[in-house]
Amino acid sequence: MKSNLFIPIFLFSVLLIACSGGGGEDNGGGGPVDPPPTPTPTKAILSSPANNSECLEVDAVNFSWNASENTTSYTLTIKNLLTNQISTTTTTATSAEVTLTKGYPYSWQITSSNSSNTTAKSDKWKFYLSGEALTNYAPFPAELLTPAPDISVEKGNIELTWSVSDIDEDDSHKFDIYLDQTDASTRIFSNHSTRSKTITLSTTGKYYWRIVTIDNHGSNSDSGISSFTVTD
Fold first, then answer.
1. 3-state SS assignment for residue 190
2. Of 6, 107, 178, 207, whose Cβ has the fewest other Cβ atoms within 10 Å?
3. What is the pTM of this model?
4. Please, what's the largest Cα pairwise distance for the chain?
């Protein structure tokens, strides 16, 4: 009798273990669970040098910004706005000192990164690094806005737009507009007073353009060349 009772008890125990998942180690049969994705970094908030400001008599410029979320490193990108030379510095801190050539305008920007494949870029600020105090500063090179670089636009009326900033807030500005299909060496308008101009282009092909900004003291700056393509 004892041997007959053992068999149904043993079978019941096997079924109970099978229904319990054998200890619960296979997560319901779905295999290992992937870790959650790394959150995307947020953009840093710039602190100094202040936008459209002047840095005087310094051997190295101190750049600082506020920490951004989900970020493990920052890349500081500095551009000389006259020579277009670019330098980069990567750090885990929220500040960096960089030695720059005096007497030039610069822009700077912070790229926030982590182990994911995504990044976040801060706003872009400008400053002028002077070797000595000046009574007047050349305006910052104009930023060419539209048409956007390398975009295609239909022939006909095309609006050129740009922006400009200046440490000397009370200065007024005039603009020389250069445009052609070779190297933006042809001046098509002089002493233009606004930051936009509508032109008519009927010939298709690639066009190059730039803006020279002149302040009321005669100081000037060159935007550099951008291009767009005119289509039918």
1. strand
2. 6
3. 0.62
4. 116
